[in-house]
Amino acid sequence: MRIEAVDPASYEGAIDELADLLVDAVEGGASVNFVAGATRDEAAQWWAARIEAVLAGTTTLFVARSNDLIIGSTLLERSTNPNSPHRAEIGKVIVHRSARRQGIATALMRAAEDRARAEGRWMLILDTVTDSPAAALYESLGWRTVGTIPGYALNTDGVPEAATYYYKDLR
Description:
The longest helix has 20 residues, at 8-27. The protein has helices at residues 8-27, 40-48, 51-56, 104-118, 133-140; strands spanning 2-5, 59-66, 69-78, 87-95, 123-129, 144-154, 160-169. The protein is an alpha+beta fold. It has a 7-stranded mixed β-sheet, with helices on both faces. It has a single domain (2-169), classed as Gcn5-related N-acetyltransferase (GNAT) (Aminopeptidase, 3-Layer(aba) Sandwich), CATH 3.40.630.30. It has 5 helices and 7 strands.
C-alpha cells in the first residue's frame, strides 16, 4: 500500500475509482454526503464537481493505492479567504471496506497534515459523525473536539444524526 497526492492532471482519470470507493463507503453505512442507494454516477458527479478546485490547487486529493487500485482517499481543501491563509479542511477520509483496520486512514491523515504543515497551513478542521469509529480515529490522532450539532445530516438510512467538529493546530 502506498499513499500519494494525485497530480491535478491525473485527477479526472481517477474519478471512476473514486466513485466506486464512495459507493462502497455508502453501502457500508458511512455518512459521506449520501444516503443509501447512491449510484456510481452520482458519486462520480460529486468527485467531478471538484475538478476546478483540484486544477486551481486549492484542493489536493490523497489516495491510498494497493496493486495500483485506489482503496482510500482524503481531501485537503485550503481556505481561499484573505483572513485564513493558515487554514484548511480535511474531507472524504474513506477506506474501502475490504481494506479497513490496516492503518490506511491514519496514513492518509498524516499525508494531508504533512502537506498542510509544509505549506504553512497550521489550522485544520473537519467534521464527522458523533461517536463513530472515525471520531475515535481523529481523537487518537490528536484532533480536539469543538462541539456537536444534533441532527446535522442524514445517515445512510435517512435518519438525522449528530456531527462533531474537530480542529488540529499543527504548530
